[in-house]
Amino acid sequence: MYATWSTPAVHKLPVRWAVSIASISLVAVAISAAPSETPSAGVVRPVSGVKFLPDDDVKCLQFVLETGDLETGPSTAIMKAAPGCVVPPHYHTAVEQLMIVQGEVSTGMEGMPEVNLGPGGFAMMPSKRVHWFTCSTKEDCLMFVTFDRAYDIVWVKSNK
Known about the structure:
Layout: H1 8-11, H2 15-33, E1 61-68, E2 75-81, E3 86-91, E4 96-102, E5 105-109, E6 112-117, E7 122-125, E8 131-135, E9 141-147, E10 154-155
Antiparallel strand pairs: 1-2, 2-9, 3-8, 3-10, 4-7, 4-9, 5-6, 5-8
């Protein structure tokens, strides 16, 4: 025996109304999925065109905002670390993603062993997770870093 059911209200709905409701639903989904703020123009810049600036806290690190806003987030930046540069333990309220472009970076995170990352290496540091890194090659280390919200940094006394 099979159960049967009917939805008379749907079957009697005029096609014109059904199309209108579907269209409104699609527009609502598109609006809710769209970023809240889109840049007025794209960004295309070769690494050779980047004008690195010294970091305020870590003297062996240079940091340049590529897109977004550090004060309100999200943002993407490019960092250059001198050979042997150590960025001591710290955390951010934002989730941080790190992608290595050049060099080798020894990356550590609280609760995980340190890992050496080369070009193409990736790390994601959750909000408020203590982490650190060292440029461990004889050449500069080049990295892209993204933050999913406003940037902040809290330095933590090293337990290492």
